[in-house]
Amino acid sequence: MNTAMHFGAGWRSIAEMGYAMSRLEIEPESCEDEKSLDGVGNSQGPNELPRCLDHELAHLTNLKSRPHEHLIRDFPGRQALPVSTVKMLAGRECNYSRRGRFSSADCCHMLSRYVPVNGPSRLDQMTSRAYVSQFSADGSLFVAGFQGSHIRIYNVDKGWKCQKNILTKSLRWTITDTSLSPDQRYLVYASMSPIVHIVDIGSAAMDSLANITEIHEGLDFSADSGPYSFGIFSVKFSTDGREVVAGSSDDSIYVYDLVANKLSLRIPAHESDVNTVCFADESGHIIYSGSDDTYCKVWDRRCLGARNKPAGVLMGHLEGITFIDSRGDGRYFISNGKDQTIKLWDIRKMGSDICRRGFRNFEWDYRWMDYPPRARDSKHPFDLSVATYKGHSVLRTLIRCYFSPVHSTGQKYIYTGSHDSCVYIYDVVTGAQVAALKHHKSPVRDCSWHPEYPMIVSSSWDGDIVKWEFFGNGETEIPAMKKKIRRRHLY
Fold first, then answer.
1. In the chain, what are the domains?
2. Rg (alpha carbons) of the chain, rounded to whole number
3. Would you state the pLDDT for residue 368?
4. What Pfam family is a match, any one (predicted)?
């Protein structure tokens, strides 16, 4: 009993210390209404509070990004979250988690506070539009693809030195997508052609000129339908590196067997361009696809049958889908849509029927027209999505969105490029817009969050590749206030 009382008293003193060292001391006589930072708000609108996600995913996200329950006990007049770094360290020293160390959720809770909004610093600048930019799975490499036939691979661990400069072959219009193999030895790149090329990036030469200094082997997805019969919008390696899945302009999904060196599967999947495909998880059995026909579809390769029917269909977008990113658990994914929204999906809610009724009563083409203001508040009457995130702009090109990394943030955020030249970050659970990163002068088609560190790299049609990091004092920026503030310590 005495031990418990001593333990509780010790905890109260630790809590007091953590709170005191992390708060701002504000002089009461100079307090005025707070104003948000430029670009920080919520995705529901300026006069609405974020509505928390009431779903199993909210619980799963919190499990991955909340500290131990002893560290989030609320004290009178004080907010339970986020827990200060001092309080986290003190709790670890007192072994409140009974583990003697930080759990992965504890680590995510601290790292996810370091939202990479500082900068940016320019890593490279090209004279052509950047279409693709992605970190490798371990964050040691970064791949950027440009409309001017170039793909550059940077060694992140060696000061962003250009490790490989690839001049592509048989490029039509632009590089639409690239993908690194799991062992990071090979890269595939696609364009508006049914031929996807594969390059050995492990070779010593820095310059890789297609079929001049190195062989860029062509993987033929056309099945004898002609060299220019369709284009590839999306391409991804399987987790074991034995297959490549692709989405095409002939409304189909293709799977290429790299071991057998032949096309192994073609699915007539949609009624319009398949802009995006990905594997649902490490098994490779489930494929997600998104199309200009507005539908997301789920395909189970184990039970396709002769009719090539999907396992299910998810309706909710009012316009075409530009990108899909899987959470990696075979259950949840997000999609970016030309209706200017990101939607979160749970495949357990998928249906088998498609509502073919059109919901648009106006003429609109995202390639050269702005989205009609009257359409921004429209809703699909049979929306099966779990949540919707708004604030960014999806125009002119197939803009991409992603979950933030699992190891450093617990997938607590969603981030996306935007036609208005910004990178937007949303909170998965609350829907709040956490930040809008402003630097570029043209649409940001792609961006990538480092898998281990609080760092985002964005690429734009202005040719810039820039890096965003967290603030030097170890915290996200404090909202500007019209009052005199005396800072003690920030942790």
1. 118-469 (2.130.10.10)
2. 24
3. 94
4. WD40
